[in-house]
Amino acid sequence: MTFDIISEERKSESVNAILEMSKDEKMREYIRQRNKAERDYESGLINARRQGRAEGKAEGRAEGITEERKRIIARLKSGGMTDEEISSLLGS
């Protein structure tokens, strides 16, 4: 009888140990997945910022080119050039 009781106690301890390890594994997996989700989210934000900056730079360059073209046309007109001459010169 004593052998059976000890054996059952050890079985119970073993089962509890396995259950605890299983919980720990589940928790580790949960933490791993959560960390991955956080990294993915941060990576998405970084990429969105980069894309926004690139789009902003491109838009700024386009606006700058347009403004510079307007200044050039104004200077050429003030220098006495006709619209046809300016158009021919600028290729527009």
Word description of this protein:
The termini are far apart. The protein has one domain. The protein is 92% helix and 0% strand. It is built from two helices and no strands. It is an all-alpha fold and 92 residues long. The longest helix has 77 residues.
The percent range for strand residues is: under 5%
- The topology string of helices and strands comes to HH
| Main pleated sheet | none
Instruction: Enumerate the spans where pLDDT stays under 50 for 5 or more consecutive residues.
Output: none
* Average of pLDDT: 87
Number of helices: 2
> Span from first to last CA?
104 Å
Describe the global form: rod-shaped
Radius of gyration: 37 Å
Record field, number of beta strands: 0
Reconstruct the topology from this structure:
Layout: H1 2-78, H2 83-90
Write a short abstract of this structure.
The chain is an all-alpha fold and 92 residues long. 92% of the residues lie in helices and 0% in strands.
Protein traits:
92 residues, mainly alpha, 2 helices, rod-shaped
